[in-house]
Amino acid sequence: MAASDLAFDPWDPAFLADPYPAYAELRARGRVHYYEPTDQWLVPHHADVSALLRERRLGRTYQHRFTHEDFGRTAPPPEHEPFHVLNDHGMLDLEPPDHTRIRRLVSKAFTPRTVEQLKPYVRRLAGELVSGLVDAGGGDLLTDVAEPLPVAVIAEMLGIPEADRGQLRPWSADICGMYELNPSEETAAKAVRASVEFSDYLTELIAARRKEPGDDLMSGLIEAHDEGDRLTEQEMISTAVLLLNAGHEATVNATVNGWWALFRNPGALAALRADHSLIPSAIEELMRYDTPLQLFERWVLDDIEIDGTTIPRGAEIAMLFGSANHDPEVFETPDQLDLSRKENPHISFSAGIHYCIGAPLARIELAASMSALLEQAPTLRPTAEPERKPNFVIRGLEGLRVEVA
User: Which of 104, 207, 277, 388 is the most buried (most CB within 10 A)?
Assistant: First the structure.
C-alpha cells in the first residue's frame, strides 16, 4: 500500500510535534507501505519490526555482497567520501564477519562488570551537574545536564582529554544530520567537514596513545590493532566516532523527551516524585513513550515478503521504532504514560546483532540524572514550551528551559 495518501509526512512540523496519530493510521492501513518521497518501504507494526531486526536477508550495508551498480544503487558523490569512509567502517553499518570482529573487541569495554564500575562516576557527575542547575535557580536542562553527562562518560571511557570535549557534540550533531531522510547538500557539507575534523583529531589522539597508553578504551583498541587482531586504523577511528555519537545522542534526547513528557503528564510526575523506586520502569516507559530514534533503515539483500507484498532486492526498508513502540497489539493503552508498566518490550535500543551495545550504560546515565533531579530539584518545572528540533529520525528538543521553584 502506498503511504503518499496518509498523514505520514516527516517534514511537516505538525507531524514532527506528534507523529503518533499518523503511526496509528499507518498500522490500521496495513503492515507495509511504499513511501515514494524517500523510496522506502515503511514498516509500522511491532511484530514485523522486531522480526526484521533479526532478519539476515536484510543488512545495514550491501557492499559486503554487491557493488552499487549490481544493487541498482548510485554511488554517493565523491565530495561526500569523507563522511562515508568514516560511517561505513563503524560496526553499526557493517555486517558479519567485520561487524562480529569489531563488536567482539568493543564489547570488552561494555561488560556488565565494567559498566557497573562506572556507576559511582556517573552518579557523582550527574549530582554535580544538577547541583549547578539548582544553584542557578534553573536553566536549560539540555545543555546543563542532559548533554554534558553522557558526553563526559563516553569521552572518559575513550580517554579523550577534558579540554577537548567541547568539540565532540558539534561534530556529532553535524555528522548525525546525514541520518535524516533526504539530507540537503548543506547538511552533507557540514557532515563532511565534521568527519574530516573528527577523524584528524582521533588520528592525533591514536598517535599520542601509542606513545603513552592508558587504561582507556582507545588504548585497548590500539593494543588489539597492534597485536594483529585485524582492527584497522580506520576502524578504530570509525568505532570511536560511533561510540561517541551513539553513546550520547540517544541519552540526551531520551532525557529531554522524557522530562517534557513528565511535565505534560503531571499525575505520572507526582507519582514518580512520591516513589523513586519507579525510576527503572519509568526510564523504560519514557524510552517507549517518546522514542529518541524513530526510524532504522535496512537494505533488502534478498527478496522478502511482508503480508503478501514482495519487497525486492535493492529496496530499502524503514522500520518505524516510534510506531512499533505504540502498537496496541503489544502495549495496553500505548498512548498513556504508565511509569509502572510491567511488560515493556520496547525496541528503542534496536534488536538482533545491532542491539545497542551501550544500552546498560545509557540506563545507568538516565537513572543517575533522573535520581539527582528528583532528589535535588523536587519542584522542577518548565518555564516555556520547548521548540522541537526539525528532525524526524533522531527525535529531540532544541532545549528545555526549567526553573527550581
Answer: 388
Give the global pTM: 0.93
Q: Read off the pLDDT of residues 323-374 as tens digits, 9 standing for 90 and up.
A: 999 999 999 999 999 999 999 999 999 999 999 999 999 999 999 999 999 9
Q: What CATH number has the domain bearing residue 359? A: 1.10.630.10
Looking at the domain assignment, is residue 367 inside a domain? yes
Q: 3 in a domain, yes or no? A: no
Q: How many CA atoms lie within 13 A of 366 on its CB side?
A: 30
Structural domain total, the chain? 1
Decide if 298 is inside a domain. Answer: yes
- Give the amino acid at 308: G
Quote the distance between the C-alpha of residue 68 and its chain's center: 27
Range of the domain at 172: 13-404
CB-based contacts of 255, cutoff 8 Å, min separation 6:
141, 142, 145, 146, 366, 369
Place of cell 528532525: 391
| Residue 7 lies inside a defined structural domain of this protein | no
165 half-sphere exposure, CB direction, 13 A CA radius: 19
Residue type at 96?
P
Distance of alpha carbon 232 from alpha carbon 374, whole angstroms? 45
In which residue are the cell numbers 516555556 written?
Answer: 384
